[in-house]
Write a structure and sequence with these properties.
mainly alpha, Amino acid/polyamine transporter I, 19 helices, globular, transmembrane
């Protein structure tokens, strides 16, 4: 009886259907953030933001197909970390998991920091730290109480976000049509600029890929998803495609309404455009939507890092007593969620530029590893209960891997240096826990 009781407490509860997983992934992406980061992306890509989002989507779509195949074969929490462990070996799995922690660990902090910055701009008399702490406390409470409550809350937040995106797109189109006059809108202009070097667009695509991170984060919810072998692959691909369509359309209409990269403040370019196309009332609605988007994204991001830490704690890569703990009542990794909240307090001492500079390093490394896992499975003949063909097992994942590596090397030098330092620290830690690779890290038990 004791063994069965312990087993029951050490597994997450399956409560999420396909719609809930889709909403969680889209909430993680926070569709409205396409406007919050538009000015930075437009400047980096030399006014080819729409094309940058489209190129990033190509890389992400091929990678999403690989995630779907692996989620069907390995329906457990852990994402790229677990896939690499099982496909290659525990050492490489650990290093991929360590790199992924860059994304998962610091993304909630960045989300809360950006949300606090928006609120501070609207209410300058309230200190930024109050908003940061408020974000952390509320999202931590929702995630600890349970993924079901957080999922229901996301439904309301996503409806609001998508409504504001739709209104922004419509207003941009109306403004561009009125400004174009008798000659009409130059529909192809946002995608084709012969004077812009392809390297500039790729640099923008490396930044744009940050917006797609939610598609892979939902794979950490596999153990809480109903019929994960069927629903998780569908969710991963649909999240990438739906999110990509929103990002491309939003950037495209923004470029039509405001061609060029001249803004009063690049970091708040969307506010300038919002006022231009809709006046003060729309700016107020837009600001409220951005805050809701940050809150929804923070819930999903913190839930994902909690479950990645749980997977690593269950393996005893991290101390199992803490990281492998499941709350007996709520059936959630409560300690890990709290740890993510504490890490978020670092935002009190950082700015957005510093905290986001190396997140994509870990993401692109993990994406590359996932694509190579599919290639490895195809070559080994280990396809599970559904055979993988040469197109899905070799051609698509290799295209995805090459695209992800291209995005990786397109990152700015600071991101590459900081990412390499983080990776080196992980390598040293791995050497220590495996006695210089003489023994493997503990195997996952599922």
């Amino acid at each position: 009886m004791q063994d069965s009781s312990v087993a029951a407490q050490s597994h997450l509860k399956r409560t999420l259907g396909l719609p809930s997983v889709l909403l969680f992934g889209l909430a993680y992406m926070a569709p409205l953030i396409v406007y919050g980061t538009y000015g930075v992306l437009a400047k980096a890509s030399d006014d080819t933001a729409a094309l940058a989002y489209l190129l990033a989507l190509v890389a992400i779509a091929f990678t999403a197909l690989s995630y779907g195949k692996l989620a069907r074969l390995y329906p457990v929490a852990g994402s790229a970390y677990t896939y690499t462990r099982k496909t290659f070996n525990p050492h490489l799995g650990f290093l991929v998991g360590w790199a992924t922690l860059l994304d998962y660990f610091f993304l909630p902090m960045v989300i809360w920091l950006i949300g606090a910055a928006y609120l501070n701009a609207a209410f300058p008399t309230v200190p930024t730290w109050i908003w940061i702490v408020a974000f952390i406390v509320l999202t931590s409470a929702l995630n600890i109480v349970g993924i079901e409550l957080a999922a229901r809350f996301n439904i309301v937040l996503m409806v609001v976000q998508l409504a504001i995106v739709g209104l922004f797109v419509a207003l941009c189109w109306h403004y561009a049509s009125a400004a174009a006059g008798p000659g009409g809108i130059a529909l192809a202009e946002p995608f084709f600029k012969s004077h812009v070097p392809f390297a500039s667009t790729m640099a923008g695509a490396a930044i744009a890929a940050y917006s797609y991170l939610g598609f892979d984060a939902v794979s950490t919810l596999t153990e809480e998803t109903i019929d994960p072998k069927k629903n998780m692959p569908r969710a991963i691909l649909w999240i990438a495609l739906i999110g990509g369509a929103i990002f491309v359309l939003a950037a495209y209409t923004m470029q039509l309404a405001h061609p060029g990269v001249e803004f009063k403040d690049t970091d708040s370019a969307a506010f300038e455009v919002a006022k231009m196309i809709g006046g003060d009332i729309f700016v107020t609605v837009f600001l409220a939507g951005l805050i809701l988007a940050q809150f929804a994204s923070g819930i999903s991001a913190q839930a994902s890092v909690g479950r990645l830490l749980y997977a690593m704690g269950r393996d005893e890569i991290l101390p199992k007593r803490f990281f492998g703990f499941i709350h007996p009542k709520f059936k959630t990794p409560a300690i890990n969620i709290a740890i993510a909240g504490v890490v978020g307090l670092i935002a009190l001492k950082l700015d957005v530029a510093t905290s986001t500079s190396f997140i994509n390093f870990g993401a692109f490394l993990a994406f590359t590893a996932v694509n190579l896992c599919v290639v490895r499975l195809y070559l080994s003949g280990n396809h599970g209960d559904k055979k993988i063909g040469v197109i899905g097992g070799m051609v698509f994942p290799l295209i995805g891997a090459v695209a992800d590596i291209w995005l990786l090397v397109s990152l700015e030098k600071t991101a590459l240096v900081l990412g390499a330092i983080w990776f080196a620290i992980g390598l040293v830690y791995l050497c220590w826990i495996t006695r210089l690779f003489r023994q493997p890290p503990p195997e996952v038990a599922v």
